[in-house]
């Protein structure tokens, strides 16, 4: 049931507000990537991005904490959606099998599109030293999410060393797949990354035989 406000239904207003925020966020990303391509990442300032996006500098920071976040956001392959799918997987699945199942749903069933914007962002992440460092720092936070996810999946503490060890190993597989993909962003690079990630997780569960 829709809640009533002073001026009618609340939900439509919230929907409009969310659409406006999404539109502004997309505009910031679009203009930032255009400027990065035209004049270089390091040469582009937040003020220039804000001006091109027709927003204030303060508004920029409502959407992104740093310039790097414009490129880094939404690139995660292990997010809350994957976490929920991993936790809801059948109990007979091992933690790694549950994660692989969740990633399969994300990559194969959702059929992620390889837009030019996604390719440009991944190229920046691989070619700009500052962004390479930011990517590693960004993923450090994702290790916490993996640890939280694995701990909840097996019903153990996040401080349990075995859980921490498994989470670190999964993060290592992600980085290995990322590095192996390299700078080849030709058609199908997201699927190639997924296959490397899945193969790496399978290898991990098998005990990393050589």
From TrEMBL:
Molecular function terms, GO-annotated: DNA-binding transcription factor activity; transcription cis-regulatory region binding
HTH tetR-type domain: residues covered: 22-82
PROSITE patterns the UniProt entry points to: HTH_TETR_2
Pfam families for the chain: TetR_C_14 (PF17754), TetR_N (PF00440)
SUPFAM superfamilies documented for this protein: Homeodomain-like
Ranges of the DNA-binding region feature: 45-64
InterPro entries in the cross-refs: Homeodomain-like_sf, HTH-type_TetR-like_transc_reg, HTH_TetR, MftR_C
Keywords for the protein's UniProt record, in alphabetical order: DNA-binding, Transcription, Transcription regulation
PANTHER family in the cross-refs: HTH-TYPE TRANSCRIPTIONAL REGULATOR RUTR, MYCOFACTOCIN BIOSYNTHESIS TRANSCRIPTIONAL REGULATOR MFTR-RELATED
Protein name: HTH tetR-type domain-containing protein
Organism listed in the record: Geosporobacter ferrireducens
């Amino acid at each position: 049931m829709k809640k009533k406000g002073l001026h009618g239904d609340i939900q439509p207003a919230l929907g409009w507000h969310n659409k406006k925020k999404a539109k502004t966020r997309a505009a910031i990303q679009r203009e930032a990537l255009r400027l990065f391509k035209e004049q270089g990442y390091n040469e582009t300032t937040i003020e220039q991005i804000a001006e091109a996006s027709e927003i204030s500098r303060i508004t920029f920071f409502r959407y992104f904490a740093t310039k790097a976040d414009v490129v880094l956001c939404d690139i995660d392959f292990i997010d809350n959606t994957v976490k929920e799918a991993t936790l809801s997987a059948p109990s007979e699945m091992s933690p790694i099998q549950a994660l692989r199942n969740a990633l399969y749903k994300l990559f194969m069933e959702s059929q992620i599109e390889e837009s030019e914007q996604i390719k440009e962002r991944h190229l920046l992440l691989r070619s700009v030293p500052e962004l390479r460092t930011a990517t590693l720092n960004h993923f450090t936070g994702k290790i916490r999410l993996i640890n939280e996810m694995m701990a909840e999946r097996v019903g153990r503490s996040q401080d349990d060393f075995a859980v921490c060890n498994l989470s670190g190993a999964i993060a290592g597989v992600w980085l290995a797949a990322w590095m192996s993909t390299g700078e080849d962003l030709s058609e199908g690079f997201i699927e190639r990354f997924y296959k490397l990630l899945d193969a790496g997780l399978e290898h991990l569960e098998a005990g990393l035989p050589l």
